[in-house]
């Protein structure tokens, strides 16, 4: 991505960071940001931080060069965010999922060199990459991670960007001009959650309620103006929809309310409270990150396929908190050992010897121990995991 599209990208990021910074300064809502560069190489350009000037500084040094393989970048982002971020509970019952903001033209690019027979083969390759990207978005959905897709450039593929976002957990298509809504994401969700809680509390007291008036009062208390209203109303509509945002598949979805955490397999662990800032208006409510749940498969943990049609799969978490799937052969060996009541299984991962210890939910490699997990997956999940593992760095 070069020229005007890259300038558009940098302009959006600068304005987005300004909005995040203002939400932090004016309302005490601190959001950690990280930057992953999609290019040569695809890498974590800056780890999670609340030092926004550091992010600005490193972006000033970025230069567009080489290919920009989106599949590789989103795979890295999934591994990085899944290991280093947590959902937040705001209000009584509203989860804000971690999000990945994707700026791209959303035209598929391969890591590989161009084909000799360009047009026909490249077209087939692009469709294959798009399919893998959708499967990857479904994994984002399973992990309660959102994709907010921001198409840039004259040749942007908005249709595919929307499709990608909608397959993640509550993701959205965002215009490059809509940096204010993107930067006030947490603030708008806190305000919307407060409005929903107040409406539900009034209903519980059997009071005559005017939902619009309650929303108006909450927005006034939070010192919102007219330009905030549409975005907040949109969030309220999502929270009140009674459905899990985002579709994991075209098949029937397992029920999961977007405003509750009973079925998410997450354990509440209060870590910090966002303090009120003097004369800033609320939000100043408790925010509770959530830690991951069980290692055994749970109903509805993957897309809409029935559990009877799914297969067990094993993965391990490396020292960088990235989850790495074992190979199909290794999974067969692990399952055989588990089903025959053995205490461990000896397998290989990328040519390295691993010992999976069933009683401890651990694996041992070169004298160190790492977490392992077992989950039920369908054929699409399996394909996505295997494809994703190709882009993981060596251990």
Automatic annotation (TrEMBL):
<feature type="domain" description="WWE">
    <location>
        <begin position="300"/>
        <end position="378"/>
    </location>
</feature>
<dbReference type="InterPro" id="IPR004170">
    <property type="entry name" value="WWE_dom"/>
</dbReference>
<dbReference type="Pfam" id="PF02825">
    <property type="entry name" value="WWE"/>
</dbReference>
<protein>
    <recommendedName>
        <fullName>WWE domain-containing protein</fullName>
    </recommendedName>
</protein>
<dbReference type="InterPro" id="IPR036465">
    <property type="entry name" value="vWFA_dom_sf"/>
</dbReference>
<feature type="region of interest" description="Disordered">
    <location>
        <begin position="242"/>
        <end position="265"/>
    </location>
</feature>
<feature type="compositionally biased region" description="Low complexity">
    <location>
        <begin position="295"/>
        <end position="304"/>
    </location>
</feature>
<feature type="region of interest" description="Disordered">
    <location>
        <begin position="282"/>
        <end position="308"/>
    </location>
</feature>
<dbReference type="InterPro" id="IPR037197">
    <property type="entry name" value="WWE_dom_sf"/>
</dbReference>
